[in-house]
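[Solved] Which block belongs to which protein?

Original post:
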Amino acid sequence: MEKLDTDTTSEKKDRIWLRIWQTSSVPLAAVLLAALIGAIILIVSGANPITAYAALLQGAFGSVSTFGRTLEKATPLIFSGLAVYSTGVVWGWLGWRFIWCYSRRIKNLYGSP
């Protein structure tokens, strides 16, 4: 027996928006909570959080040149995170063990910061 699609376009749109909200609400809440905690720390230290965040955004995204520098500095961090994640996903437990052993080896060679 074939299932009939009885959903209206309004119900489909509602489901799409619900799915978007479900997938983006936790990261959005994390960013907002981090900004709130940062603002509290700035207030306690005597700085104006609005001025500080405006300077942060201006320095990172204020012009094409500064945005390019932001991407230049962020790219190695992004690729390092992807490398560690993909090693653990592809190799499973063995990959995570390799990462742990390698990081211990680096720490023993160069010492902890």
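(Second protein starts here: sequence line, then its structure tokens.)
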Amino acid sequence: MFDFFKLAELFTGRNPEKPCADVNDPVELDRLGRVPGALSGMIASVIHRMLVVAPEKRDAGSKFLDPWEGIFKAAAKQAHALEGRAVW
């Protein structure tokens, strides 16, 4: 199982999951921290969709592959523009 909270922490520097006293407590989230960089809007948008706590309201994991591929391609395009080389 993939930990979406750790993914959010990777991009923002902090885990948005609030600490709980008991493992059976419902999951609560703080606001997502700032995502730095030129692609921050795209990244934050996908992470917000991934962090929907209720599984019945959250898209299936497979629905997030295309947005992440788009983000990767945008980052590669930026790297190419800055450095003159392709990443992929």
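Accepted answer:
You had them paired correctly. Confirming on the second one: The two ends are 27 Å apart (CA to CA).
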